[in-house]
Amino acid sequence: MEKTIPAALLTLVQLADGGNVKAKEALENIARELIDQEEQAFYQQCERLIPILLRWMVSDIESSKPCYLSLPWQLAHLEQDALFLAARPVGRFWYRFDMYILGDDGVEVMRAPRRFSRHDIFQYLDSVVRVPDVELHLEVPLSYRVGELVGWLSGLAISQRDDALAGIVMLCALVAPLLVSAPVSSTAPAGRLRAGRK
Fold it and tell me: Which ranges of the chain have pLDDT less than 70?
């Protein structure tokens, strides 16, 4: 069925063609609203796809059997935790993700390796261990967060081994005081911690 242009819109177009400033502004507002709606629909589709893509990429990482850094003795018991083990490849994925940027066109994805200073590393570890969002902090178990960070640091160790090992020490210093009150849970949503990432 062929769509007809509403009379009011047709009138606006005619007025805008005749130089009416208010009609031009009204048309610009309508166009902006339509573009916003299309963008919103696009982002909603992306949000539905992200968990599927994340699972696929994480399973690809797992199948490559990557090596992971060990935890210091103070945190070593976490290496037996199923959530810790499940989170390590997710962290490894996020490290790989950090090595790519969007091109100027906003479409092309380009590899752009970067180096992390120890200050950058500490800030990232701190933001994940001590999640500022209280609900997210309670929802995502500490063992999962530590696993994700060990995965990320293990990716970093390929190009910045000394900095990654220093990161493990920082991680231990951040986590050890929290172990007494660490929440216990059996599930954790993959990728939720990235909500606050830059």
Answer: 1-10, 12-13, 16-17, 34-54, 102-108, 180-198
DSSP code at position 6 = P
Task: Indicate if 57 and 80 belong to the same structural domain.
Answer: no
pLDDT tens digits for 43-56? 566 566 566 666 77
* Shared domain check, 78 and 55: no
- The predicted model scores a pTM of 0.63
Give the separation between CA 138 and CA 151, rounded to whole angstroms: 21
Residue 18, burial from CB neighbour count under 10 angstroms (0-12, 13-18, 19+): exposed
CB 58 within 8 A of CB 52: no
Query: Residue 166 and residue 153: Cα distance in Å, rounded?
Result: 10
**Does 35 lie in the same domain as 86?**
no
